Amino acid sequence: MKFLSLFSTIFIVLITRVLGSEVISLEASTFNQTISKGNWFVDFFAPWCPHCQVLEPIFSKLAAEHGDSFESKDFHLAKVDYLCELHEVEGYPTLNLYKNGVKIDGYLRARDFNSLLEYAKTKSEEEYDSKPSNDNTDVAIAPEEVDIPDVDLSPPNPSGSVVSLTSINFDDLTKSGPWFVKFFAPWCGHCKNLAPTWEELGHNLQNKVNVGKVDCTTEKGSRQLQSLQEFVEQVASARLVDITLDDFDKAKKIDDNIMKGLSRSFFSVKFYSSKDPKLATSLKVYTLPSLIVIKDDLQNSYTSLNSVDPFDDIVPLKTWVQSEKYPLVPAIDSENYEDILSGDRLVVLGVLRPTDVRPFIKAKNTLKAVAKLYHQQTKKRGSSEDNRGVLFAWLDGDKWENYIYSIYGLSKKDLPTVIISDPLSSEYFDTSKSGDKLTLSHQARLLESINDAKLGNLEGKSTIGFTEKMFRGIFSMGSEIQKTFAYHPLLSLVCLVLIFGIFWRSCLMPQTRDGRWRDFERGYDKFE
Predict the structure, then answer these.
(1) Given 84, 188, 216, 507, which residue is catalytic?
(2) Which has the higher per-residue pLDDT, 123 or 384?
(3) Active site residue: 52, 216, 495, 507, which one?
(4) What does pLDDT average to over the chain?
(5) Where do transmembrane segments lie in this chain (predicted)?
(6) 191 part of the active site
(7) Is 429 domain-assigned?
(8) How far apart are CA 330 and CA 321, in angstroms?
(9) Per the confidence metrics, is the pTM higher than 0.70?
(10) Is 507 a catalytic residue?
(11) 271, pLDDT greater than 70
């Protein structure tokens, strides 16, 4: 019996060692506290996500077979359901690496077992080797005096108010923390209109960003030559950053984290240059020089009709950058709505509700997937978009509630949904060619309807009212008449002569007092 008991104990221990560890499930309430010590490789997932369902057994196998080895190096495998908004997770699944509570890396490789194992082994060994060794040798070491500078750890804008900046306090106050500064003049009407909004902004940015204002009628230093020169040199020097293959993944992550809501002008587009042949090979760039744009792992190259020097003609180059300046699926706001919704491209518009978090994330990711698939198909066909581009975007249905109701007849209960907007014809399409409603859940139908909209095969609904439509028709008719006169001068002359003749006969020909035309003017008197 003792032998059997001992055997059972050994067997249980062996089984435990074979099974290894499990993936640790993290809770929202204790997430930050749990990952505050050690290295944590965290899987952000959603139960309904098919990609997450594929990854789950692979990640569990990784923990079961190698979890103990990782744990010995203070490297832990964990998973968490939601927390996306707090940790800037925009898609599922997302794998991030944290060290002592701080994100140090994001996993961007293939999600198969061998790739995950190689990454986890490499990172666990790197972090373990970087830890200071504990040497127990008794050596008397004199404490080193380190001069620690005083650092202000208080959050910016603690009072939530706008700070008046002057030439005396400007440099001292703005040298630490982010500042958003308004330069104004008291007599300026636009400045007066902005004033209450600026005060409200200061309150809303409490503990986030310092908000200040400078009265330019009394403080004129900011318009000195030196200040203007420093600003221009700073902007010019920051426009182009040289990178290598090692910097590339880091640069993409910086763009993801910092360049959210990209980009309303060239000032908010990140430009990089590189002479690294490894990076060119990685991006499959074989013709130099080349200009490429990368959005959510989609890559598009600039092509020019000038084969000798593709960058010699600056006009089409600027046009291309302008057309590519937005992310794959930008959010429409008060700054970019006119450019997007009043441009010349078709807009595949997702109308979503960010306040309803789970459906919002799912709908947004689906819209991104459709956008990727559309651009991949377009690139595969070698299509030039038939000179009609397509832009994908999403609109906050809560914030723009009145707008979506007046333009598209949508209410909150209809969301999330998707429509195709045609700014040129002031129409939108919410049904397919066969009359089925467009939804994000039917991706094939949506893709087919986009092509039908480009070809003019869909029945559209007007985004303007009857009165505006009538006036537009009148102005359009007048424009067509003007074009006809311009292109056919002889016909124009004949029409003008006829019009003048009718006018002269009706208004200018002499009349008798009783209102009858004089007979002799008509030549009738010779028959009397």
Answers:
(1) 188
(2) 123
(3) 52
(4) 73
(5) 485-504
(6) yes
(7) yes
(8) 16
(9) no
(10) no
(11) yes
Tell whether 144 is covered by a domain.
no
Tell whether 33 and 123 lie within a shared domain: yes
Residues 62 and 103 in one domain: yes
Same domain, yes or no, for 451 and 335?
A: yes
Which of 274, 293, 323 lies at the terminal end of a domain, its last residue?
A: 323
pLDDT tens digits, 327-342 = 889 998 877 888 888 8
Q: Give yes or no: 216 in active site.
A: no
How far is residue 304's CA from residue 356's CA, in Å, rounded to a whole number?
Answer: 44
- Let me know if residue 101 belongs to a domain: yes
Residue 53 tokens, joined:
């369902």
How far is the C-alpha of 206 from the C-alpha of 163, rounded, in Å?
Answer: 12
In the set 49, 84, 495, 507, the catalytic residue is: 49
The residues with which 273 forms a beta bridge, in sequence order, are: 242
Q: What is the dihedral of CA 467, 400, 260, 322, to 10 degrees?
A: 0
Q: What is the rounded CA–CA span in Å between residue 8 and residue 399?
A: 64
Check whether residue 300 and residue 335 sit in a common domain.
no
How many other CB atoms sit within 10 Å of the CB of residue 326?
Answer: 21
Residues 44 and 119 in one domain: yes
C-alpha distances out from residue 48 to 10, 82, 359, Å:
41, 12, 11
**Same domain, yes or no, for 314 and 384?**
no
The answer to whether residue 146 sits within a structural domain is no
Predicted local distance difference test score (pLDDT) of residue 507: 65
How many distinct helices (H) and strands (E) make up the chain?
A: 17, 17
> 17-31, 68-82, 278-292, 351-365 — which is least confidently predicted?
17-31
- Cβ pair 261, 331 in contact under 8 A: yes
If pLDDT is split at 50, 70 and 90, which confidence band does 432 have?
A: very high
Domain endpoint, select from 323, 357, 379: 323
CB neighbourhood size of 310 (10 A): 17
CA distances from 116 to 201, 278, 339, 371, 454 (A): 45, 23, 42, 28, 43
CB–CB of 332/341 below 8 Å?
yes
Catalytic-residue membership of 84: no
Q: What is the residue type of 110?
A: A
Q: What is the DSSP string of 207-235?
A: TT-EEEEEETTT--GGGSHHHHHHHHHHH
When divided into structural domains, the chain yields a total of: 5
For position 88, which CATH number holds? 3.40.30.10
Supply the angle between the helices 357-381 and 443-455 in degrees, to the nearest 10: 50
Closest CA to 23 of 104, 120, 147, 118: 120
Check whether 144 has a pLDDT greater than 50: no
> For the chain, what is the radius of gyration of the CA atoms?
34
Q: Which position has the token pair 């009359």?
A: 435
Residues with Cβ within 8 Å of 22's Cβ and at least 6 positions away in sequence, in order, are 60, 63, 64, 67
Distance CA 68, CA 240 (A): 46
On the question of pLDDT at 446 being above 90, the answer is yes
Q: Are residues 53 and 110 in the same domain?
A: yes
Residue-range definition of the domain harbouring residue 511: 466-527
What is the arrangement of strands in the sheet containing 390-396, beginning at the earlier edge strand? 390-396, 346-352, 417-422, 427-429, 461-462
Q: Kindly state whether residues 300 and 255 are assigned to the same domain.
A: yes
